[in-house]
């Protein structure tokens, strides 16, 4: 899977802006879908966090490109540094600072994505036994972030040695080899555990086979995030790879696909709407009938109901024919039913609403009745 031609800074910049554009487009579409569904006041904590993630992701892309576009960092011995001019030293220091800043933005990006997914999982598992596993995983993710940052700050002392020329410990302060091991362990293991929560729920669901396969493939994109994490750190740990920038390409892929995976589940309803619009000829059928005294028109509306939790137990009805991830990011039932309204020529218009509120969501069916 590794392309050893991934050593060109220009190629990295090109791939970066392409993948970044896709990621930002998904974030914008996700936010638009959430605002349309809930309104601005109904946005969830993970929606706001995703806005922060967009900023972190942007900063990570910019610093990643900058860190590989200059003269190199501080991974040089004192004998080599002695041959440089003061201007050359400043350039190497600048690059080393960019490497450190990029690493921090990379950490912030991937861990903010993890938190976004955990918030979604929290709603997904409401009333289910898996909710306890989500809480444990949240604790592990927090531990992983703290442990990774401690490794960064404690393994190279003082901290400014990360951009010292030359550093007192080239292995850690220039090539991050000691730090890479705990970072990889926490990052990869937490990603693997996060895959273990949604996949069993989707597999056990009553989705039609095609939709179930689509959802499994969607969440399985997380496997690529794990692979990218392994590949990026392999180039930091293997001595023969210390001088190339292949790791930067895998950083890009890991962060970008993580952003994709965090946003696509909440775009699933929009994808379904578009698909249904294309595949269905009509959502409304009109038929007419006649009588002795007046003409009547029978209108049939297809409407979608959402599976509501029991107010007392907060558990979800498991008897459903079709389900999808929408709204509160839980598995919902999609059910088509008919509402028939008979209209007379002489009528007055009124609106009858059937409302059911649960928590912060209100579900309303608007039936135009004319008598």
Description of the structure:
There is one protein chain. With 371 residues, the protein is an alpha+beta fold. It has 2 domains: 9-273, Rhopdopsin 7-helix transmembrane proteins (Up-down Bundle); 282-370, no CATH class. It has helices spanning 9-38, 45-67, 78-81, 86-124, 130-154, 170-174, 177-195, 198-204, 209-237, 246-263, 268-279; strands at residues 284-290, 295-305, 323-326, 330-333, 335-343, 349-358, 361-370. It has a 3-stranded antiparallel β-sheet with strand order 1-2-5, with no helix packed on it. The protein has a two-stranded antiparallel sheet with strand order 3-4. Helix 5 runs antiparallel to helix 7 and helix 8 packs antiparallel against helix 9. The radius of gyration is 27 Å and the shape is elongated. 31% of the residues are buried. Residues 285-338 and 343-371 have low confidence and may be disordered.
Give the structure's gist in a few sentences.
This protein is an alpha+beta fold and 371 residues long. Helix content is 57%, strand content 15%. The protein has two domains: 265 residues, Rhopdopsin 7-helix transmembrane proteins (Up-down Bundle), CATH 1.20.1070; 89 residues, no CATH class.
